[in-house]
Amino acid sequence: MARERRGFRHRTRVAVLGAGNWGTTFAKILADGGADVMLWARRSELAAEIQHEHRNSAYLPGVDLPHSLRATSRLDLALAGAEHVFVSVPSQALRENLIAAAPHLGSRATVVSLMKGVEKSTGLRMSEVISDVLRLPPEQIAVISGPNLALEIAKEQPTAAVVSSQSLETAQAVARIATNRYFRSFVNTDVVGTEFGGVLKNLIAVAIGIVDGVGYGENTKASIITRGLVEMTDFAVASGAQAETLSGLAGLGDLIATCQSPLSRNNTAGRLLGQGYRLADVVKQMQQTTEGLASVGPVLELAAARGVEMPIVEQVRQVLAGELEPKDIAPHLTTDPDDDPKGERNTHGQAQGGGALRRTFQRALDQLRDGGRRAPGDRP
Ligand SMILES: NC(=O)C1=CN([C@@H]2O[C@H](COP(=O)(O)OP(=O)(O)OC[C@H]3O[C@@H](n4cnc5c(N)ncnc54)[C@H](O)[C@@H]3O)[C@@H](O)[C@H]2O)C=CC1
Ligand SMILES: O=C(CO)COP(=O)(O)O
């Protein structure tokens, strides 16, 4: 935490690894919040542009970066003395980057994932990969997620996010430095829910892009978003998350932002698929990280292992594999509304989950009736 001492202002030393859209934007958030930030870019030309011209023209055109933000392509310099290390590389490259960073990492540094994917080869969440490679105790690991389209934040449009760590103190310490006049970090201790919120909303955003590309309208999209949130919640709860987290910033909040915005790469990739492009062409066209395309397989494997049905995510897989026409994607709505007035059943008459979500809303209603303060979940 930045603190005053006899006129000397201590600025927390932090490193950000990965100078793409989100890494650069997050480095700006931290620098504007008063931290002493060193951003690591793989390419020396990019590091030089950020350091000397205060720009990252490839990823954030038109955005002026703070002059206090320094950049380097040397990992050892980026990590020297860093108390907190924020990581924003593509999920599939996290492990190799952590292995390279490990020798330069201070033994007490907190490592914070900014990423929204799962490792394809292991099915591990990003915080699990961090734990696996670096052998850090849970209180030195945190994750950040929320409705955070990078370019909007780089333009200083007000936004909120959640910092999550098993240790509330760690989450609060990270939230303090990751807060400034346009960015507010809330905290929770539900790492599983916070991470899976970010992973799963990408898949629903791909589905929304697909139906948008086909030309379907708002009813289809609203149905997919609503049923998608049920799938996200059931999957996350079966994985050990708290349902409340999925109705907070890292779940519903991010789902709304990503499904609505043309800035979303997942949404854009889906739209191209819906317009009839084949997956290989879409991948070629997407110059930036599109996590949802890599997460579909591992998420469905985990869902099968946990006995969770994910009809929308399964249809996304089928479209990606060329097994389903984009126009045939459907939100699997109730076929007989009288059959199940409270829940929603699929075409086979099976309950489509939603129990956890319903319980959350019920608890929130009960709290309101009791004169309670507010639903649990993201806290200031
Ligand atoms: N862009 C956004 O609005 C947000 C992105 N995220 C997450 O942040 C993570 C990174 O995404 P973006 O910054 O948007 O992606 P990006 O594609 O803009 O940037 C990725 C960066 O990683 C670098 N990179 C690529 N392969 C690498 C490797 N093997 N080793 C090291 N660096 C490598 C690229 O050169 C680039 O600088 C993703 O998990 C994404 O889901 C989270 C919130 C918002
Ligand atoms: O995570 C994001 C917004 O919160 C960014 O979404 P995309 O990765 O789809 O661009």
CATH class of the largest domain: Alpha Beta
Biggest sheet, strands in spatial order?
A: 5-4-3-6-7-8-9-10
Amino- and carboxy-terminal Cα gap: 16 Å
User: How many alpha or pi helices?
Assistant: 16
Number of domains: 2
Mind telling me the CATH superfamily name of the largest domain?
NAD(P)-binding Rossmann-like Domain
Residue-averaged pLDDT: 90
What would you say about this model in short?
With 380 residues, this protein is α/β, with parallel strands linked by helices.
Describe the structure using short key phrases.
G3P_DH_NAD-dep_N; Rossmann fold; NAD(P)-bd_dom_sf; N-(1-d-carboxylethyl)-l-norvaline Dehydrogenase, domain 2; globular; two-stranded antiparallel sheet; 8-stranded mixed β-sheet; 380 residues; binds 1,4-dihydronicotinamide adenine dinucleotide; alpha/beta; binds 1,3-dihydroxyacetonephosphate
Q: Can you describe this structure?
A:
Sn-glycerol 3-phosphate binds at residues 116, 146, 201, 254, 264-266. The chain is α/β, with parallel strands linked by helices and 380 residues long. The chain has 2 domains: 12-189, NAD(P)-binding Rossmann-like Domain (Rossmann fold); 193-369, Orthogonal Bundle (N-(1-d-carboxylethyl)-l-norvaline Dehydrogenase, domain 2), CATH 1.10.1040.10. The protein contains 16 helices and 10 strands. It has helices at 21-32, 44-53, 75-79, 94-101, 126-134, 150-154, 168-177, 191-214, 218-238, 243-246, 249-260, 265-274, 279-285, 291-306, 311-320, 355-369, and strands at 3-5, 8-10, 13-17, 36-40, 70-72, 84-87, 110-113, 141-145, 159-164, 183-188. The chain has an 8-stranded mixed sheet with strand order 5-4-3-6-7-8-9-10, sandwiched between helices. The chain has a two-stranded antiparallel sheet with strand order 1-2. Helix 8 (191-214) packs parallel to helix 12 (265-274). The chain is globular, with a radius of gyration of 21 Å. The model is unreliable at 334-343, 345-353 and 368-376 (pLDDT under 50). Bound molecules: 1,4-dihydronicotinamide adenine dinucleotide (NAI) and 1,3-dihydroxyacetonephosphate (13P). 1,4-dihydronicotinamide adenine dinucleotide binds at residues 18-23, 42, 59, 88-91, 93, 97, 114-117, 148-150, 288-289, 291.
